[in-house]
Amino acid sequence: MTASANFPYLLALAAFLFSVGALGVLIRRNPIVVFMCIELMLNAVNIVFVSYGRFLNSEEGQVFAFMVIVVAAAEVVVGLALITQVFRVGRELDIDDLDELNE
Amino acid sequence: MTTSTVAVLSGLILLLPLAGALLNALVGWRLSRRVVNAIGTGSILAAFLVACVMLAQVVGAPDGAKSASAHLWQWLDLGTGGLRVGVDVTLDPLSAVMLMVITGVGLLIHVYSVGYMEHDRGIARFFSYMNLFIFSMLVLVLAADLLILIIGWALVALSSYLLIGFWYERPSAVVAARKAFITQVAGDVALVIAAFLIVVHIGTLSMPGIFAAAPSFASGGLLITVVCSLLAIGAFAKSAQFPLHTWLPDAMEGPTPVSALIHAATMVTAGVYLIARFHPLFDRAPVAQGMVACVGIGTAVMAGVIALSQVDIKRVIAYSTMSQIGLMIFAVGIGAYSAGMFHLATHAVFKALLFMAAGNVIHALHDEQDIRLMGGLSTNLRRTELCFLSGTFALAGIPLFAGFFSKEGLLGFGLTNGPGAFPWVLYLVGVGINVLTGLYAFRLWATVFRGEPQTARVYAAREAPRVMLVPVAILALLSAFLGLILGVWSLVIHDNFLIGVFARFLSPVFTTPASGPLAVDLSTGTAILAGIVGTLGSLLGAGLAARIWLQRNPDPSAVTARLPRALPQLAYNKFYFDEIYDALLVRPLVALARAARRVVEPRFMNSGVQTVSDACSELGAWVRDYQTGLIRDYASYMIAAAGVFVVATLVLVSR
């Protein structure tokens, strides 16, 4: 199968993964799981980038994908640090409890 | 003297003090006191050396080429026919004299400050301001464009403000600084309006251009009279002339070196320089000239009378400064530009000397400034007294001291070339000023140094350290011999004994026939008579002062006690100018502001403002409901927005 034939399936896969991720962010309460869902969404976008790069015969898609991976790594560092700090304060890990910033 | 030489030298002399100011301002707080002192005085020393080179350039230039301008860069260019402003500098005999005064006297005062400010923690700030002032003053005198001159004009007001308020923890110093600044800004406004009128009429602000186009003004016409009057008002504000004089005595709140540098030697004489520099315009506006002359001599009388009644050592000298500048303004008002500039130069020397010697006294008595509590200081402050005496002789115009030459020169010119039908009226007033000057100058010396000590502190007074004595001594020598040297030199070249050499040096600048160095020869019989009468006036004042105050327990108010009570009261209270301005300007303004706050603001302003602020808080309350603090909500908003975006894209693309 050529790359172009696979293209719609790849996009569908990406859309599916993105939706799963978005849904997870919205309905799960454990911050770590929410976090993993965000990663899922990012990687869905990566699939789109790479497959479009293939489809259009250009390297730029891959470059962008790498960029996203780097940013995601940085984001994980910050996010996990925050989560550990919240856990240390002795709070339960439930994101619905963390609403002090609303005022 | 080539253009490039002028450009290089002016660039150097401007950048050196500026660099010193920046260096001390930025890193001075972490440098040691010695380094700060070295930067502060070193930059001025370097500038002084450059000024000497510039003077040599002017002296060495052949006749007819004594003036050179250089174009440093184009600052503003509004195209053909529009206004063009270049950062241009002019080096000619007039600016060379000012350069020497500024950097020479400035250097000595900087050295003196090292000793005077020895125990002050803000030494870096002090030297930074002082260098900034020297820079601003140099911009002012080198500028060849009216706009650049105005920039320097405003910058000296700023540095004066900073230095008067140097001890900012004293409320009186802060108030005095503000007063000086506001009064001077009133003059700046007049100057800027004059610049507008010049641009509208001539189309350029370049000073050579203005002077070349001066004949296009109708001589004695309304426009030129208005322009010159506005320039003169600017000069009055800067030079503390009536009616904008009230800031100068209050400015004595600043440290004494500041009083010596800014409020005696340089900045306050900038008004004299301005009028002398714009003489091609003033020569065509006799009405404005007459106004300038009358204001000058009137201020001289008024300030002399006030000086006689004051008891604060610095204020006496401040009023004497105001009086002497009045004489200079009178001189440039009657067209005696060289004589006015000569008095400016000698006055800078002997008045800086008097201030610094007074600073030694104040220092020795631990910040005592009341002359009624001094007396008998000559035993402990022998050297300071000698220097002070040299300045006093020069100030009073005792023959062969510096002040004698310049003052008699300008008064003699006034008799032969004065304005109006009766020039001798103003001349007689001038002789009266000579008597007054002799009186207050020797009154100050006698009450401070002679007689018996009036307080125990006098016994404990110690002579100032060498770093404060040497600059004072140099100035004392200058004020004793500067005039004499120039006078002998004048005799050698067969010129007028009083101001011959100086007038000849400045003659390339004041070339127009009406303002020639000496339109009427001062060696004529009338002029000699004028000089003799004037000198007798000075001697009479000095002699009277010696009779009245050279006693064991001199009474500083000895003269005033014999007059009707109202007169000394008036003079002691400075003719109530502060009170009058307070009643006429300050109180109505404050009342207006109060009325606006009570009536206008709640009724007219607040309703509109209130509506806007109510709308804002309602909007905020509505938006606040969406800030729940729940990540889930925020994520939903984001995803919903992304969905809207996707749908919108699809719709738009498919169309």
TrEMBL record, chain A:
NDH-1 is composed of 14 different subunits. Subunits NuoA, H, J, K, L, M, N constitute the membrane sector of the complex. It is an enzyme of class 7 (translocase). NDH-1 shuttles electrons from NADH, via FMN and iron-sulfur (Fe-S) centers, to quinones in the respiratory chain. The immediate electron acceptor for the enzyme in this species is believed to be ubiquinone. Couples the redox reaction to proton translocation (for every two electrons transferred, four hydrogen ions are translocated across the cytoplasmic membrane), and thus conserves the redox energy in a proton gradient. GO terms for biological process: ATP synthesis coupled electron transport. Keywords: Cell membrane, Membrane, NAD, Oxidoreductase, Quinone, Translocase, Transmembrane, Transmembrane helix, Transport, Ubiquinone. GO terms for cellular component: NADH dehydrogenase complex; plasma membrane. It is found in: Cell membrane; Membrane. It is a multi-pass membrane protein. The keyword Transmembrane applies. InterPro entries: NADH_UbQ_OxRdtase_chain4L/K (IPR001133), NUOK/Mnh_C1-like (IPR039428). GO terms for molecular function: NADH dehydrogenase (quinone) (non-electrogenic) activity; quinone binding. This is NADH-quinone oxidoreductase subunit K. Coiled coil: none annotated. Its EC number is 7.1.1.-. Belongs to the complex I subunit 4L family. Gene3D superfamilies: 1.10.287.3510. Its main location: membrane. NCBIfam families: PRK05715.1-2. The chain crosses the membrane at residues 6-26, 33-52, 64-83. It catalyses: a quinone + NADH + 5 H(+)(in) = a quinol + NAD(+) + 4 H(+)(out).
UniProtKB/TrEMBL annotation, chain B:
One of its GO terms (cellular component) is membrane. GO terms for molecular function: NADH dehydrogenase (ubiquinone) activity; NADH dehydrogenase activity. It is found in: Endomembrane system; Membrane. Its main location: membrane. Signal peptide: none annotated. Pfam families: Proton_antipo_M, Proton_antipo_N. It is a multi-pass membrane protein. Gene3D superfamilies: 1.20.5.2700. GO terms for biological process: ATP synthesis coupled electron transport; electron transport coupled proton transport. Keywords: Membrane, Transmembrane, Transmembrane helix. The keyword Transmembrane helix applies. Residues 143-420 form the NADH:quinone oxidoreductase/Mrp antiporter transmembrane domain. InterPro entries: NADHpl_OxRdtase_5_subgr, ND/Mrp_TM, NU5C-like, Proton_antipo_N. Residues 80-127 form the NADH-Ubiquinone oxidoreductase (complex I) chain 5 N-terminal domain. The chain crosses the membrane at residues 6-27, 39-59, 94-114, 126-144, 150-168, 189-211, 217-237, 258-276, 288-309, 316-338, 344-365, 386-405, 425-446, 467-491, 527-550, 634-653. This is NADH-quinone oxidoreductase subunit L. It comes from Candidatus Amunia macphersoniae.
